[in-house]
């Protein structure tokens, strides 16, 4: 991940921004309450065949939305039933995987200079991109004012080397890449969702046009003027533990907001370019075929109405497949008979 890739990452986010920079002044965040470290999830039936997962029935729906160009055209898509993790994969769950397999995430490895030649000394170091809230925004609002490549940032230290996840086992694991998430999913006997599976699961039975355009009230997003004023009316300035808000009608938590979620589909600039995989196809090899960018879904704690209205089921965003970020996690799916 060299400077060119970071610049590309920055440029993509900038392109996705809603222009709302005029008049931004220095403001500070307001932390509303002591941080909660865990939220109790409702118990599952003891006979549930796949603990921690919810059944998503098959169906046809209007895939896509009309808010941003990349969500279009809306078109009918059919998805067969599947099981899906009730929550984003947590630090505790990912730690079990690492303990069992000694897996080393991409953000913890030396950067491959053959893949990314011409790196600066800093960019050669293992790390990830971290959101750092600025006091104000200068000029045209380049995202490099709040996104920084921090050596030493990884899933154990998601805010940089001075941060830790002790006591935060219930939080979603972040700064993981497509390769990391795929390795976890494979270890579980699962896979990453396709974009269509994810979107259908988020619709929770709405087969028609997406009706979730407003900023959700029961989700961890951003209230205030991003990136300089975060009133945290939803209770969380940053990430929340998994499952702090009510689930959708199919029992899935935090589909909107909290951490963005990786899919297995390569990113295309519109739906007209076609999906990388058919909705239910099991990818033979989990490497995306395209330019190394994947679709991520659901938005995050950083999505605000003035900047990133991607706290919607139909929203989508590209993500470099080998670059971890402090707002990015995942959940898995399992193709198995329904209940
Ligand atoms: Ca929030
Ligand atoms: Ca999420």
Structure description:
- There is one protein chain.
- The chain is an alpha+beta fold and 339 residues long.
- The protein has one domain (57-334): paralog of FGE (formylglycine-generating enzyme) (Alpha-Beta Complex).
- 13% of the residues lie in helices and 14% in strands.
- It has a four-stranded mixed β-sheet.
- The protein is globular.
- The chain binds calcium ion (CA) (2 copies).
- The site of one calcium ion (CA) has 7 residues, from loops.
- The site of one calcium ion has 8 residues, from loops.
Quote the CATH topology. Answer: paralog of FGE (formylglycine-generating enzyme)
Radius of gyration of CA atoms, rounded to a whole number: 19 Å
Could you name the CATH homologous superfamily? paralog of FGE (formylglycine-generating enzyme)
- Strand proportion: 5-15%
What compounds sit in this structure?
calcium ion
Query: What is the rounded distance between the termini?
Result: 43 Å
**Main beta-sheet strand count, sense and barrel state:** 4 strands, mixed
Q: What ranges have pLDDT less than 50 throughout 5 or more consecutive residues?
A: 14-32, 282-289
Just name the CATH architecture: Alpha-Beta Complex
CATH class: Alpha Beta
Overall form:
globular
Overall helicity? 10-25%
- The strand order across the widest sheet is 9-8-7-10
Number of DSSP E strands: 11
């Amino acid at each position: 991940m060299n400077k060119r890739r970071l610049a590309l990452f920055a440029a993509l986010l900038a392109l996705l921004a809603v222009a709302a920079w005029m008049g931004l002044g220095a403001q500070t965040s307001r932390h509303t309450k002591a941080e909660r470290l865990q939220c109790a999830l409702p118990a599952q039936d003891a006979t549930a065949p796949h603990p921690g997962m919810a059944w998503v029935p098959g169906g046809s729906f209007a895939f896509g939305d009309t808010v941003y160009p990349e969500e279009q055209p809306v078109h009918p898509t059919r998805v067969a039933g599947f099981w899906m993790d009730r929550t984003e994969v947590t630090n505790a769950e990912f730690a079990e995987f690492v303990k069992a397999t000694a897996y080393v995430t991409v953000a913890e490895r030396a950067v491959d200079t053959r893949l990314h030649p011409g790196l600066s000394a800093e960019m050669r170091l293992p790390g990830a991109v971290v959101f750092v809230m600025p006091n104000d925004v200068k000029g045209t609002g380049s995202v490099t004012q709040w996104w920084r490549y921090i050596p030493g940032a990884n899933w154990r230290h998601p805010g940089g080397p001075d941060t830790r996840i002790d006591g935060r086992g219930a939080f979603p694991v972040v700064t993981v890449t497509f390769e990391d998430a795929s390795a976890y999913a494979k270890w579980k006997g699962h896979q990453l969702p396709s974009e269509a599976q994810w979107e259908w699961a988020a619709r929770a039975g709405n087969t028609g046009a997406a009706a979730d355009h407003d900023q959700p009230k029961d989700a961890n997003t951003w209230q205030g003027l991003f990136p300089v004023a975060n009133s945290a009316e939803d209770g969380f300035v940053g990430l929340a533990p998994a499952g702090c808000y009510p689930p959708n009608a199919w029992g899935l938590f935090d589909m909107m907001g909290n951490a963005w979620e990786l899919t297995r589909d390569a990113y295309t600039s519109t739906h007209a370019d076609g999906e990388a995989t058919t909705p239910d196809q099991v990818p033979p090899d989990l490497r995306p075929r395209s330019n190394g960018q994947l679709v991520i879904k659901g938005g995050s704690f950083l999505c605000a109405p003035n900047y990133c209205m991607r706290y919607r089921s139909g929203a989508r965003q590209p993500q470099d497949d080998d670059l971890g970020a402090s707002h990015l996690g995942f959940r898995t799916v399992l193709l198995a008979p329904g209940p």
